[in-house]
């Protein structure tokens, strides 16, 4: 290791270079996450990871990031805002005929963009310190990015388990550079959630089972993205029109009043995914789905899960003959898994269509009872 490097100055330079590359905050921490191991083990042993087997594999690596890149002693943690200027939260959520897509997925897939910026940062550091060896991570490999971000001073862990920043809320992506340089580390921020439990209360499926603990098996984001099989019937009505992810716990969080809009054009909503009509999305074939989601995080769930989620949303939509007809036409088009959800949605639509008729009959009977006998 070169002894002439002023690591204090280098750390300041790294933070400045990170801002120049479009990150909103850069922090530095050591790699000791041993304090997280017990909570991770309890969560996994309770089965709260659901079908996400990758969470259990290599669990020892998650609490020891140094093993992911030999020689690493620090993590440079970064965050980048992704909230678009016209997110349209209420407009979409309040209209059951539209499909709600989590705001992070409205634009281009963030993984490549952040990874490239992190590599650019690594190469810039290498110009100043030839001894640098680094590896970038963006929601990849068994790395606990949120605890690293908290240790690096990017924010604190909210009761919904997301990282919260006093000046930016939670609408941001995280990324890390593992490096072999003994840079000075930053201090964690104070937890400022206090007695607030808004995120716990608002969760449609009660997935936040206690402060800081999310049972993925109940989480709408998990159910619509990571869950590969049938969505449990008890949760289907609670999904509403959410077809990819869920933002409810972030929408209700008081700290998101201070959220900053993104400066990245790549995170701007695609027209076909911004407040889309469910029936129009339902008509996509697989080729159209792949074309419309090219370069998008949505593509990773595949056409089958996309149709499964849409079927549930259509079942939850206001009853209408055209929805019922579209669902009937969709049977046998994709798979048995999708057909199961279509049948459920059809039953929901029939149930909803029958209710107004019952109300009309009750109204007619009430009128008849009030009329004179010779009317």
Written account of the structure:
This protein is 41% helix and 10% strand. The protein is α+β, with helices and mostly antiparallel strands and 375 residues long. Among the domains are: 7-85 and 102-179, no CATH class; 277-375, no CATH class. The strands form four sheets. The chain has a four-stranded antiparallel β-sheet with strand order 1-2-7-4, with helices on both faces. Strands 3-10 form a two-stranded parallel ribbon. It is elongated. The relative contact order is 0.14.
Give a quick rundown of the structure.
Helices cover 41% and strands 10% of the residues.
State the shape: elongated
Number of strands: 10
Average pLDDT reading: 91
Please mark out the parts with pLDDT under 50 across 5 or more consecutive residues, or reply none.
356-364, 370-375
Beta strand %: 5-15%
Helix content: 40-55%
Give the CA-CA distance, first to last residue.
Answer: 102 Å
Secondary structure category: alpha+beta
Helices, by number, come to: 15
- Going across the major beta sheet, what is the strand order? 1-2-7-4
Spell out the helices and strands N to C: HEHHEHEHEHEEEHEEHHEHHHHHH
Largest sheet: 4 strands, antiparallel
| C-alpha Rg (nearest Å) | 24 Å
How is this fold's topology laid out?
Layout: H1 7-20, E1 25-29, H2 34-45, H3 59-62, E2 74-81, H4 89-93, E3 100-101, H5 110-128, E4 134-137, H6 145-151, E5 156-157, E6 163-164, E7 172-179, H7 198-202, E8 208-210, E9 213-214, H8 220-226, H9 236-239, E10 242-244, H10 248-251, H11 278-282, H12 286-292, H13 302-316, H14 321-330, H15 336-370
Parallel strand pairs: 3-10
Antiparallel strand pairs: 1-2, 2-7, 4-7, 5-6, 8-9
């Amino acid at each position: 290791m070169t002894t002439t490097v002023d690591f204090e100055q280098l750390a300041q330079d790294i933070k400045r270079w990170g801002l120049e590359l479009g990150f909103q905050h850069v922090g530095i921490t050591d790699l000791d996450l041993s304090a997280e191991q017990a909570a991770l083990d309890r969560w996994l042993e309770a089965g709260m990871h659901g079908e996400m087997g990758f969470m259990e594999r290599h669990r020892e690596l998650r609490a020891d990031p140094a093993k992911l890149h030999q020689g690493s002693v620090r993590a440079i943690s970064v965050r980048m805002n992704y909230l678009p200027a016209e997110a349209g939260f209420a407009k979409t959520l309040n209209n059951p005929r539209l499909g709600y897509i989590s705001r992070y997925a409205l634009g281009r897939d963030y993984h490549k963009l952040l990874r490239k910026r992190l590599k650019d940062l690594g190469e810039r550091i290498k110009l100043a310190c030839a001894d640098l060896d680094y590896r970038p991570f963006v929601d990849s490999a068994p790395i606990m990015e949120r605890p690293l971000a908290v240790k690096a001073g990017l924010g604190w862990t909210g009761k919904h388990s997301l990282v919260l920043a006093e000046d930016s809320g939670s609408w941001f992506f995280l990324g890390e550079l593992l490096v072999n340089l003994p840079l000075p580390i930053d201090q964690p921020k104070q937890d400022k959630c206090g007695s607030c439990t808004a995120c716990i209360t608002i969760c449609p499926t009660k997935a936040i089972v206690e402060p800081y603990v999310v049972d993925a098996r109940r989480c709408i984001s998990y159910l619509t993205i990571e869950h590969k099989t049938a969505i449990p019937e008890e949760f289907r009505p609670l999904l509403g029109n959410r077809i990819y992810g869920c933002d409810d716990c972030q929408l209700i969080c008081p700290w998101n009043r201070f959220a900053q809009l993104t400066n990245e054009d790549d995170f701007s909503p695609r027209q076909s995914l911004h407040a889309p009509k469910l029936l129009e999305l339902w008509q996509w074939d697989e080729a159209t789905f792949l074309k419309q989601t090219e370069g998008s995080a949505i593509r990773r769930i595949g056409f089958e899960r996309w149709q499964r989620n849409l079927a549930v949303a259509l079942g939850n939509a206001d009853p209408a003959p055209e929805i019922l007809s579209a669902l009937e036409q969709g049977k046998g088009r994709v798979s048995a898994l999708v057909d199961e959800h279509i049948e459920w949605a059809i039953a929901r639509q029939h149930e909803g269509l029958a209710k107004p008729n019952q109300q009309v009959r009750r109204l007619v009977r009430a009128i008849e009872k009030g009329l004179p006998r010779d009317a």
